[in-house]
Amino acid sequence: MSEGERLTELAKRRGFYFPSSSAYGGAAGFWTYGPQGAALKSNIEDAWRDRYVVKEGHQEISAPDIMPEPVFEASGHLDGFDDMIVECGECGATHRADHLVEDNTDIEEAESLPNEEVMDLIADHGIECPSCHTSLADQPVDNFNLMFETNIGPGSSSPGYLRPETAQGIFVEFPQLSEYARNQLPFGVAQIGKAYRNEISPRKSLVRVREFTQAELEHFIDPEEDEPPLAEVEDVTLPLYSAAAQESEDGGMQELTVREAVDQGIVESEWVAYYLGVSTEWYERVGVDMDRFRYRQHLAGERAHYASDCWDAESEVDGDWIEITGFAYRGDYDLSKHAEHSGEDYTVFKQYDEPITVERATVDPDMSYLGPEFGGDAGAVADALEALAERNPDAFDDDEVTVEVDGESHTVPVEETNFSVDEVTENGEHIRPHVVEPSFGVGRIIYTVLAHAYETDEVDGEERTYLDLPPEQAPTTVGVFPLMDKDGMAELASDIADDLRAAGLSVTYDDSGAIGRRYRRQDEVGTPYCVTIDYESLEDGEVTVRERDTTEQKRLPIDGLADRLERLATGDLTFDDL
Ligand code: GAP
Q1: Is ligand 1 within 6 A of the CB of residue 268?
Q2: Which of 323, 325, 445, 448 is the best mutation target for the ligand 1 pocket, counting ligand atoms within 8 Å of the beta carbon and taking the most?
Q3: Is the CB of 298 under 6 A from ligand 1?
């Protein structure tokens, strides 16, 4: 069994996640998180919130999942959010063409290749339909838009889409969000929520699904002035696989500190480097095995339509690298597009330290001249003159000035434009912030954390499976077991479980089956500590506390138990300290 298969088996058996709607045959790419999975997911989201919202001092919002069509016309998703699809001429199954190439050749990133080249590669390598094994040579490779479309309200006059990234819910609301941040850059807005993509071939359980949770941060900065607090993470070591290394024959991964990566120009943006540093520590915190982890820079052809530079955090499972987070420098792409399409103001006013005096060229065209001369174009000619005066005042040096409107040249005597250059005092300027975006896929992080936590060893001559999840992430912190349901042991165990819950610990009470089997159940869901109440407990007020990874056991007084377990879970105490 592969690592992924045994994980999926454990996930279903123990209630981490399983395919949705299976009573009706299911639908590929949709998974339900069971009790263990939902608890793990919410622990990971809380850890994300703690690091990227609370510790960074950012704000969190919650926007709708469905947004109207103009949002995605502006964002570019309607035109450009496509994957390459190839349809089998024999059985009609559809497949992601670039993935077929990656699976059947040495090419790692076929997504960055043009469609025609992918079509040629399919033919040259004799790639067959995975469903019916008919050759896919000569089948066209087309673009397929990944957004789920719906109608808002009855009828079809108001199309909407399920958001393919949570980010757009932040960008669209920038004017309000900027006000809440008192129009002071830099500021960050985060969101944890669902995103939807009609993936051509969902695969590897949580890795490629059609509905998933993203945790995204959009950090709005003044690119001229704002600098990240790089010193806070400058010594963190980053495993980097740059675009140059991917393209060179002998290139491999480099281990550089955040400071070295910036100084050597490997990571161009200090902001991106800052978040790579912050995130390296965060992945470790939530249980990613950092020996199976890297940051890979996007190749030029692979970058999303909005990104000028992008690094992916990738984890290794089953020998494959999985993108778990994208770190993109989105520049002012999104805010410019929404400004252009909506006509709203997507800038912030940047106040100067001192007012400055500048020369400003203006026009005040004589409409009684432009009207008869240019008819319906007169207004557009006036606008073009105004824009030209701002852009190139020297154009008004001669007797006549020429502007273009809809591809047609219009010449106007300069005296009819009332051109003048005046000194004006300015207190500031409107600037369009740039955006730095760490975008996490929560499901892929859960998959990675579980795969990396999966351990086997031998206990009492039997193979044991356990998840060595960090206590902060484990769905349950403490399992509480009465040795037997008699002579008051169950009552005492139940009281202890209540006390531990009241102290804020996550507790599972289990009184069924042999004690060894109860330990195994908790081991398999990653519960770091178990407490057993036996006959002696009734006499001496002590219980047995067992640690998951070592299976070591210690007797501890019930008095003060909650405090000790809490300190163990937060790392304030080690089991040896007890
Ligand atoms: N706002 C930027 C953005 O959405 P992305 O690289 O397309 O960037 C970010 O997605 C993250 O979302 C990925 O790194 C991945 O973890 C997750 N993700 C994307 N598509 C996914 C899918 N079909 N199934 C599961 N997770 C996905």
Answers
A1: no
A2: 323
A3: no
Strand partners, 469: none
- State if residue 333 touches ligand 1 by the CB under 6 angstroms criterion: no
Amino acid at 14: R
Average pLDDT of the segment spanning 95-121: 93
Please state, in angstroms and rounded to a whole number, the distance separating the CA atoms of residues 532 and 551.
13
Chain centroid offset of residue 321 CA = 16
Please write the tens of the pLDDT for every residue from 149-186. Answer: 999 999 999 999 999 999 999 999 999 999 999 999 99
340-389 tens-digit pLDDT:
999 999 999 999 999 999 999 999 999 999 999 999 999 999 999 999 99
Please report, for residues 468, 527, 539, the alpha-carbon distance to residue 471 in angstroms, rounded to integers and kept in the order given. 9, 7, 31
Task: Find where tokens 């219009």 sit.
Answer: 410
Percent helix, strand, coil in the chain, to 5, is 35, 30, 35
Contact 435, 330 (CB under 8 A): yes
- 29 CB under 6 A from ligand 1? no
Which is the closest atom of ligand 1 to the Cα of 197? 23
Q: What is the rounded CA–CA span in Å between residue 361 and residue 91? A: 67
